[in-house]
Amino acid sequence: MPLKNLPLGDQTFAELIDSNCLYADKTRYIYDLLKSSKKNYFLSRPRRFGKTLLLHTLNELFTGNRDRFKGLWIDGSDYEFTRHPTLFLSLSMASKTSEILNETLLSSLGAIAREAGVDVQGVTPDMYFGNLIRALHKQFNSKVAVLIDEYDFPVTVNMENSEIAEDNAKVLHQFFSALKRVDVSPCVRFTLVTGITRYALTSMDSGPNHLNDISLNPRYAGICGFTLEEFDILFSEGLEEIFDNFKGAGELGKISDISDLKAEILHWYDGYNWEGPTRVLNPYSILNFFENKRFDAFWVNSGRPAHLRALIRKKTLDFITPKLESYLSQTVRKAELTQLAAVPVLFHSGYLTVDKVTPAQTIDPVTQKTVGARTYSFKLPNHEVGSTYYKDCFQEIFQKTDYNEFKSIHQEIITAILAGDARALSDLFSQIFSSIAYHQKPEGEKNFHAFIQLILLAADFTLLSELPGSKGRLDLVVELPKHVYAVMELKYCKNQKKRDPVKENSALAALAAWSFPLEEAYANLASMAVKKLKPRKIALLLTEKTNGGMSEAEKNKILALEAIKNLSEVDFDEAMAKTVREKLTPEELKRALSSIEPIKDLSPSEIHIILAKAARKALSDITKKLYHDQINLKAKKIIDIGISIYGNGNHVMALFGHE
């Protein structure tokens, strides 16, 4: 079973057949496309999944050379192998500006025209494109097959500069509109446009909206990649050849026969689904696995998409904790370039796959037919992606060029927790947070929760997040060796500043003088008088003047008026400010104090006193007997840890609770 000239897609279909390379027969799917009443298609698949190879197969098919397909499914079909001129164009080209993209498109189309021996005129790419199709049709007296590869490259490669990406999307919109020209469309026999993403087409609704998107059509779920059936046909011999390399190996050390080896391969590389029952294995990783005879994240390590890296840096929190449930089909298929959501991007890029599809449930009251869109739920496809995704996020966010430098933190965190070394654990988290780029610094407890979760996942810990219990939810449960679990409660406070209390009281006292009747402050002024005036004077003031005595309100009035005459300005303001605080809502009070400038940062010790108190209270509310059953069934030991964080995460303190 020779495996030559990887990676997949670098050879044409003809070269693969000539060199006896491994090839999954996809001609049944192609036949279905060619026999359909529709003729214009779009297919989205992740990078290195065989899109280019699929287009080369079509290119060879349109040559009419049946001998190329001896032994393949389509050779035994009723397909007529009619020859058609083919326009095969890859848009993986220079595109740093829209002007450069226009020039490169014209140059590439001109090369195709010269090779075909046709004379074409056109000053813009769309004009030249349409005229080239018409010229090929006339020259060969046959309709043209249009095959466009990597259509979205000029957009995705420029995602870090959204202005260039959007300008290039406009160029593509205009370019593809040529296919709909009334003098061009009749000249086209078949069109297939492929790319990684769908969103570069979103703003092109008046351009290539005639393309039939088969990306999530169950009939074509296996058109790229290896299905389970194809894997068994193509790789059974290879499993026998390399089994000796893997005896006793694997993630659990239990590869003892061929079936164990196959199960481990599926665990690593299977699981991709584009709706329907058909699952496929990652073709690039499978071929590299048999070539190198070892398990590794071949596809992931072959190069992360530039657009994905750019978006992780731009929308950090969305990618750390993507919400995988209930996406409408149109949300998955389409997204504006300026509003890209994490899950659709991850799905199109190959980092997520379809988990469940829920049919539309709305019934039209008139027709009684089910209407509306289906919804999708997603998941990580396999171990290759699951074991590397959070490391990828970590590298982008924490600016680690070499992930190996970070690996030691796994054992350091374990050691610190098991030893109850709060200082060491605090230093570890503080050091990591200090490496975050300024513009990516998180704020808020929810965001810091996500960042700590990312650190632990990137360090290969097994986590349970927001675990429900009888007294609420546990922030994080971290699985340690030998069935030891660390339960983490997170508390956060932004780096606050103190206000001068004298200025604050003075401002509120002035507000009271303007806004409240003096009678409303009598009780507080009286209380201040009792604290500040001599008891003898107070007794004298309150001596009964009538047989009936005085009411409490009358006493307060007498003491309040005396306070106004005798108290210092600072004491008077304090009493009046207390009245305002009792009367105003927290939001009203915040507005009232907004004009007073803070005078200094709270010190780390002051903030940690606040946070430690909150964390310890939360930990004291969670006793071992109240932990979720999922922990109780497995845990031999549970360690409580409070994590207090303030500012931008440069100060993290670990607080160990009871064990």
Give a short account of the largest sheet.
5 strands, parallel
How much is the radius of gyration in Å? 35 Å
Give the name of the CATH superfamily of the largest domain: P-loop containing nucleotide triphosphate hydrolases
- Helix proportion: 40-55%
Kindly state the number of beta strands.
20
What's the number of domains?
Answer: 5
With helices defined by DSSP (H or I, 4 residues minimum), what is the helix count? 28
Unreliable parts: 1-10
The CA-CA distance between the termini, in Å, is 58 Å
Describe the structure.
This protein is α/β, with parallel strands linked by helices and 659 residues long. The chain has five domains: 13-220, P-loop containing nucleotide triphosphate hydrolases (Rossmann fold); 226-270 and 280-298, no CATH class; 306-389, no CATH class; 402-496 and 604-656, no CATH class; 500-599, no CATH class. It is 44% helix and 15% strand. It has 28 helices and 20 strands. Strands 2-3-4-1-5 form a five-stranded parallel beta sheet. A five-stranded mixed beta sheet has the order 14-15-16-19-20, sandwiched between helices. Helix 22 crosses helix 24 (552-566). The chain is elongated and about 120 Å long. Mean pLDDT is 81; it is low at 1-10.
